[in-house]
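Predict the holo structure. Ligand: flavin-adenine dinucleotide.
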Amino acid sequence: MKKILQSKDTSLSFEFYPPRTEQGWDNLLQNIEKLMPLHPSSVSVTYGAGGSARTQTNKLVLRIHEESRVPVVPHQTCVAATRAEVRNIMQQYQNVGVHNVLALRGDPPVGEDNWQPPADGFKYAVDLVRFIRAEFPDTSIGVAGFPEGHPEMPNRLLEIQYLKEKVDAGADYIVTQLFFDNRDFHDFCARCRLAGIEVPIVAGIMPLRNRKGMERMAELAAGARFPAELLRRVEEAPDEAAVERVGLDWATEQVRDLLEHKVSGVHFYTLNSAEPTLEIFSRLGLVKP
Ligand SMILES: Cc1cc2nc3c(=O)[nH]c(=O)nc-3n(C[C@H](O)[C@H](O)[C@H](O)COP(=O)(O)OP(=O)(O)OC[C@H]3O[C@@H](n4cnc5c(N)ncnc54)[C@H](O)[C@@H]3O)c2cc1C
């Protein structure tokens, strides 16, 4: 990943999550097949909160790794993990030749205000980055960044310092939370550079697909400021199909602007669907022969 992001071309990557049902797996594998001809520079796989969801991450990572030539980036959270558990998972990836990870803290269980990590665990993502860098020095490590700010940290100056700590601890690049206003991303990059953060910053993009999805994103709090112009267009949309077209138009223009600004990378949160990403690539002429 480090090498890919050092290229002068904008890297284009996709994110998937491990499905919970057989049908979800069938659907995802079909969609991965549709997306591979777009030649993503990498794909990433999220890490779930529950026990079985975690083994599913491993299963999906290995499957993509074995069946395609695309570099895979497993996400790894540390919110409830011990060092031994993380070491074990990372070792499994190393053994099969997966040398990438997106190192995240994850979210504490809902309602646990006084949550503490396990005794032999990690409090923040920076501790996980330090651990992986020390134990698996050849791994390319990405970390999360929040153009609109992280909901737990109202102090935006401190937040960038904490992000810098993750980079100083060994992170090679940053992937951002989704955003709908590119000005937030460009300003975030400028603030990072002012703070001395020099690593590539990859923009996270998720096309809006329907009104329900919009409400869900608003509830998730991190990364869902809808610009007034987008809200107006959604409000004027006569039905859900029209909302989907609004979302695609909006995301396409976001990606066009990011490419024009020659950003290091654009990361598509696919939600395991192929169509929106295929459509954006086609509209922007990004489909390679
Ligand atoms: C690209 C991307 C992918 C993601 N993938 C997943 C996934 O697969 N699975 C999943 O469960 N979640 C995922 N998340 C969500 C993420 O786990 C949560 O947003 C989490 O709340 C923050 O994770 P972090 O790695 O940024 O944590 P951290 O960097 O640890 O930051 C968490 C909070 O603590 C603050 N902080 C950091 N250091 C300190 C310090 N020393 N003292 C005080 N405060 C500090 C930060 O400012 C921030 O508010 C993803 C997020 C992004 C952007």
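The first strand starts at residue 11 and ends at 16. The chain has a mean pLDDT of 93.
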